[in-house]
Specification:
about 250 residues, alpha/beta, 8 helices, about 50% helix, globular, binds NADP nicotinamide-adenine-dinucleotide phosphate
Length: about 250
């Protein structure tokens, strides 16, 4: 028996990167998986890899009704959803002089509204059962603004604040919340970037940190510790000092 044995876990963004990595890891520890993303062929490959205890559901997190249908399908096939991992997200890079408002809206609608739609699809049933866990894959980019990252930083700051508020509202219901703030991880999202990404992590190492935080019921974690320490120091800096340093350290080309 492990923490994951016979738990039903819904993971958004399970077709690639962190979502896929976490899916494969927790499946090996006994979880049943409801895998959500838009690319059916990639989801089918993950289902194939975990050998049967998983169902693939194609849905776009921006569509609240589709997310409710996806959660229903997972409940029907695998039983009540014990854990939601709200992981679907996109990364962006653009200087404010080239920032397209439609692009900003899309980042917010996937990274923030998409996560909220995922929560809405599972929380009523979790509260009714008096048990459940919500996991947000946010980012260290949530803590302060970064060069060429206005939309992404805004989306991750909103995501972290959203889940923190949800955690407060859910106190006493039996439903917990874990917010994960990773630094740079080797996934398709960071592949091909030319800018220096300090303390870039292997996917497998990041997956183990995420899985461990969920098992321990942590409220919030930030990693790798080296970059998390730098970010925390940045939060204590006076604004003029932070701006000076942040303008000289762009992680985006
Ligand atoms: N990699 C990093 O360095 C890093 C660091 C901090 C935080 N994060 C966060 O970790 C999460 C996963 O990122 P990743 O690095 O694993 O990127 P990735 O490999 O590009 O995976 C992103 C996943 O999100 C899904 N997705 C995107 N838009 C969607 C939509 N509208 N509806 C449903 N699913 C959607 C994609 O699936 P489909 O395209 O098939 O829909 C894919 O499965 C993101 O929230 C990201 O912000 C990543």
């Amino acid at each position: 028996m492990t923490f994951w044995t016979d738990k039903t876990v819904m993971i958004t963004g399970a077709s690639s990167g962190i979502g896929k990595g976490v899916a494969l890891e927790i499946a090996s520890r006994g979880a049943r998986l409801g895998l959500v993303a838009r690319r059916q062929n990639l989801l089918d490959e993950v289902v194939e890899d975990v050998k049967g205890r998983a169902v693939a559901v194609v849905a776009d997190v921006r569509d609240a009704d589709a997310m409710k249908v996806a959660a229903e399908r997972i409940r029907a096939d695998l039983g009540p959803i014990d854990i939601l991992i709200a992981n679907a997200g996109i990364g962006t890079s653009s200087h404010i002089s080239q920032l397209d408002p439609n692009h900003v809206a899309n980042v917010i609608s996937i990274n923030v509204v998409g996560a909220a739609n995922s929560v809405a699809a599972v929380v009523p049933q979790m509260v009714e059962r008096g048990q459940g866990h919500l996991v947000a894959i946010s980012s260290l980019a949530a803590y302060r603004g970064l060069a060429k990252s206005a939309a992404y930083c805004a989306s991750k700051a909103a995501m972290s604040a959203y889940f923190e508020s949800v955690r407060i509202d859910l106190r006493g219901t039996g439903v917990g919340v874990t917010i994960i703030h990773p630094g740079f991880i080797k996934t398709p999202l960071t592949a091909g970037r030319e800018a220096h990404m300090p303390y870039l992590m292997e996917l497998d190492d990041a997956v183990l940190k995420i899985v461990s935080a969920i098992e321990k019921g942590k409220k919030s974690i930030a990693f790798p510790w080296q970059l998390a320490t730098v970010v925390r120091a940045g939060m204590l800096m006076p604004t003029f000092m932070y701006d000076w340093i942040a303008a000289r350290n762009s992680f985006r080309e």
